[in-house]
Amino acid sequence: MSRSDETYLRKQNQIFESLFNTNELESIMQLFEEDAMLLLPGVPLIRGRSAILETFRFMKTKIDKISNHTEEIHISGITAIEVGHYQHFDLNGKPLDEGKFLVVWKKVAGAWLISKDSVSSNGR
Fold first, then answer.
1. Which residue intervals define the domain DUF4440 in the entry (predicted)?
2. For residue 42, what is the DSSP state?
3. CB 75 within 8 Å of CB 48
4. Cα dihedral sign, 22-53-32-88
5. Which domains does the chain have, with CATH numbers?
6. What is the pLDDT of residues 98-108, one digit of tens each?
7. Residue 64: which of 109, 94, 103 has the closest Cα?
């Protein structure tokens, strides 16, 4: 595992959080593969940047801020697995949800992109 790749992926997670929190949802899409998948509790599989963007726009009507924390990253070749936990907050800063996430990153043309993004609520 390359330490620089791990550092880069941790930074990408911070960028994702910052872009969501400042409502720059279109910019987040540059972190995803074109045919990426988003797996959320209670809804069918969401596939592709445009569908993920629409989902994030809907989520943003309820979630003002997110906080992500990476626990560990495992890298093997052109694939990386990131595991962590998250919190979501409403417009008043009150916690809405917390849970875990697992992200599969793929290195495509030298760039790390999100291939699969899965979250699991702790049922808050």
1. 10-114
2. T
3. no
4. positive
5. 3-121 (3.10.450.50)
6. 999 999 999 99
7. 94
Q: What are the backbone dihedrals phi and psi of residue 77, each rounded to the nearest 5 degrees, phi first?
A: 65, -120
Residue type, 57: R
Q: Quick: pLDDT tens for 52-66.
A: 999 999 999 999 999
Contacts 24+ apart (CB under 8 A), 66-74: 66/17, 66/20, 66/21, 67/17, 68/13, 68/14, 68/16, 68/17, 68/101, 70/9, 70/10, 70/13, 73/1, 73/6, 73/9, 73/10, 74/1
- For residue 59, the surrounding DSSP H or E stretch is helix 49-60
- Of the ranges 1-15, 16-30, 65-79, 95-109, which one carries the lowest mean pLDDT score? 1-15
Residue 5 region, left (φ>0) first, then alpha (ψ -120 to 50), else beta?
Answer: alpha
Query: In whole angstroms, how far apart are CA 90 and each of 9, 22, 35?
Result: 27, 14, 30
Please report where in the chains the tokens 């009507």 appear, as a residue: 61
